Amino acid sequence: MLLFSLTAALVCAALLGLAVAWLRRTPDSALDQARQRYEAFVADLDRRVAAGHADAALAREEKTEAARALLRVEEAEAVTPVDPRIGFAGAVVIAVAALGLSVFVGKPDLPDQPYAARVEAWVETLNTAPETLEAKPAAVALQQLSAKYGDKPAYWLQLGQTQVVAGDYYEAAQAFKRVTQLAPEAAVGWSNLGEALTLLNKGQSNGEARAAFAEALTRDGDDLTALYYSARILTTDGRYEEARRLYGVVQSRLAADDGRQQTVAAEIAALDQSAQTAATVQAQIGGMVAGLEARLAKNPEDPDGWARLLRSYRVLKNVEGEKRVLATLDRLYADRPAIARDIVQRADRPVGAQ
């Protein structure tokens, strides 16, 4: 705080010095400068006319235009300028206000606290009144204890959970990985790792997160965190009934007044909406597939049609239909394998990419 006060005082002094120097200077006015340019221009024209390098009539016209420009400057100069002392007063007011703000809002009576001192204070608070610490300072304080407790899975679990609350998901994932290394048989390390990775990926469970949840459920089939996120993964994959079953398991394991009940209920409501939308889309695609199949039965020489049919079966996750189309392509284009390969490649592209 003392450093801030000294800085504010120095800024005030610098502003004062600059303002005084500015007020004491006597610069040429815009009109004086314009007159000097006009006189120099006229003198140059006269020299050029005398030397025969410029036409006298043209020189008179240029002098007239220059005189008009000078007149416009004189008219503008006639406007009363702002007193520079107003600017000086404003600068002083701003500087004094900043200093006053630091005195009344800040704590100039307290000494500066370097970061190391703050961390030391956080560690002390962690030991005496941990509930008063916010998540980020608590996480920093916990990190200082790694030399003492670094071989304890519980330490890394607490650190990771605190970092999740603080929003430091990457650091939390690293802490939970330490838990899985020190206690690979504990489901809690794996489920927390999967959650941190999911949060780090903006709510989407990537392959590593999915594997972590699977490891957790292998060790403890009742791990609520792993069950909840596994239900979300099933929803993402379109396996709605399986997801609904897992959400039901989670609800049955939570107390009726547990706040997480509302979260699960919201997920189930979203699942119902997604299932309804998916059913509508499936019906539309199913109708298109039936039409394609009928058309291809009459005219099998239609590579575009086969590509759309193959893509549709993949969207529908109809493995048997996909196998049937591939077998038909092998038979139909046995002597033209390049066409069959092109159909399969086009089916792999997103809709509209053709």
Head-to-tail CA distance between termini: 65 Å
CATH homologous superfamily placement of the largest domain: Tetratricopeptide repeat domain
| Protein structure class | mainly alpha
* Elements, N to C (H/E): HHHHHHHHHHHHHHHHH
Oligomer kind: single chain
Number of domains: 3
Largest sheet: none
Count the strands? 0
Number of helices: 17
Instruction: Determine the mean pLDDT.
Output: 83
Share in β-strands: under 5%
Helix content: over 70%
Enter the CATH topology name of the largest domain: Serine Threonine Protein Phosphatase 5, Tetratricopeptide repeat
Provide key terms for this protein:
354 residues, mainly alpha, Serine Threonine Protein Phosphatase 5, Tetratricopeptide repeat, 77% helix, flat
List the SSEs and their pairings.
Blueprint: H1 2-24, H2 30-50, H3 56-77, H4 84-104, H5 115-128, H6 135-143, H7 146-149, H8 153-166, H9 169-182, H10 187-200, H11 207-219, H12 224-236, H13 240-253, H14 260-298, H15 303-315, H16 319-332, H17 337-348
Helix pairs in contact: 1-4, 2-3, 5-6, 6-8, 8-9, 8-10, 9-10, 10-11, 11-12, 12-13, 13-14, 14-15, 15-16, 15-17
Keywords: Cytochrome c-type biogenesis, Lyase, Membrane, Repeat, TPR repeat, Transmembrane, Transmembrane helix
Protein name: Cytochrome c heme lyase subunit CcmH
GO molecular function: lyase activity
